[in-house]
Amino acid sequence: MKRFHVHVGVADLDASIAFYTGLFGTGPAVTKADYAKWMLEDPRINFAISLKEGAAKGIEHLGVQVEDEAELAEVYGRLKAADAPVLEEGATACCYAKSEKSWIADPDGVVWEAFLTTGENTTYGESPDLAGLASTQAASNACCAPQMPSPAKTSCC
């Protein structure tokens, strides 16, 4: 069964852990000096927070976590059908986990990952080059994502 994934950048990890522990009614399943993750069943979500110097705060990226290779193949097929560039990262280490993953960005630059976690990792991990997916601020703020150029600023009103 697939699990929705949300990753949020925070300014104060301890305060955020306390807040989300209260909100979810349980503590994180994983806690590191710069990261925490809740694997909730109700609602079924992989909710992660991280503290990265200089990174924007708020939602960094969204994703779909799968439980096996068959679900991963299904979700990868959906990514390809979305008619946008897909980065098939393959085997990687990110967020203290080993995973098989691919990335895509929606038309507004919101970065999505599809992944199968295959084990634990002792370090936070490296960032893939998502430059071909989107060049928006949303994409440049994603965890495990490289810094990308900011789009030209436009006034809204």
Largest sheet: 8 strands, mixed
Q: What name does CATH use for the topology? A: 2,3-Dihydroxybiphenyl 1,2-Dioxygenase, domain 1
Euclidean distance between termini CA atoms: 44 Å
CATH class: Alpha Beta
Mean pLDDT: 80
Number of domains: 1
Strand numbers in spatial order across the main sheet: 2-3-4-1-5-8-7-6
Q: Structural class of the helices, strands and pairings?
A: alpha+beta
Low-confidence stretches: 135-140, 146-157
- The helix content, as a percent range, equals 10-25%
- CATH homologous superfamily - what is it? 2,3-Dihydroxybiphenyl 1,2-Dioxygenase, domain 1
Which percent band covers the strand fraction?
35-45%
The helix count comes to 3
How many extended strands? 8
Gyration radius, rounded = 15 Å
The CATH architecture term is Roll
Order of helices and strands: EHEEEEHEEEH
Taken from the alpha-carbon principal axes, the silhouette is: globular
Protein name: VOC family protein
Domain VOC: 2-117
InterPro entries: ArsI/CadI-like, Cadmium-induced_rsp, Glyas_Bleomycin-R_OHBP_Dase, Glyas_Fos-R_dOase_dom, VOC_core
Pfam families: Glyoxalase
